[in-house]
Structure formats: structure tokens, C-alpha cells
Amino acid sequence: xxxxxxASYPHMLGFEQLERLLERTAKSGNEGYPPFNIEQTSDYSYxxxxxxxxxxEDDLSITVEDRQLVIRGRQREDTDNRVFLHRGIAARQFQRxxxxxxxxxxxxxxxxNGLLHVDLTRAKPQTVVQTIDIKKG
Length: 137
Description:
Blueprint: H1 16-26, E1 36-42, E2 45-51, E3 60-65, E4 68-73, E5 94-99, E6 104-112, E7 115-122
């Protein structure tokens, strides 16, 4: 049995990059931490919300790398002169990646009540009609 790819379909021209993007997304290794929501806030905007309780603004970084939104968190160990009888709150790092389509821009990021909100906007698509002249050969 052969693996079907986008290149296997003769009417799908130029989608090789999309196929590589899908493979990269599948391998991104996003675990279940931290939990997140994605909501559509209008026809052309979205909001990603991550539950980052215990993280401060300085513990988080948000970057866009090769059409991927990457959110990283690293808490500093603050255990000086502290003796824990029970430690149930993990101070672990994380990395969440989200693949962005062409035309999607990252707007502002807001920290509120232990939730990190990242707003995204998508450019309104324009209808383009192009007429190609036929020359005699």
C-alpha cells in the first residue's frame, strides 16, 4: 500500500509546502500542558488562551518562527530557604506551537488572572480574477 500525498493528486499543484507543514505539525510534540482554548472572535480574528497559572510575564516568551507561533514558559526555581511539606504545584517548563496560515498575523498578548491570551488576525481574502492571453504559436 502506497502512502497518498498531496503530490499524488494531479490537480493539486504547488502544495508540497503544505504537506511538509502538516508533517511538521504532527511531529511538534505538543503535550497536554498547559491546557488551551482557541476561539474565533470574529470572521477574521482568533484568540488562543493558555492556562499559565504560576507563570509571570517574565517567565513567558512568544515568538513567530517560520509561520509557527511558539509560546514557551520557564519558571524560575524559588526554593531558597523554603521547606516544602508537600509540593503539588509543578514548576515545569513548556512549549506550545501553533502553525499559522499565510496572512495570519499575531496581535497583542494579554496576561489576565493566570490566563495568557494571544490575539490573531487573518487578512480578509481578496477575489482576484486574472485573464491569460493566448498567443499563436
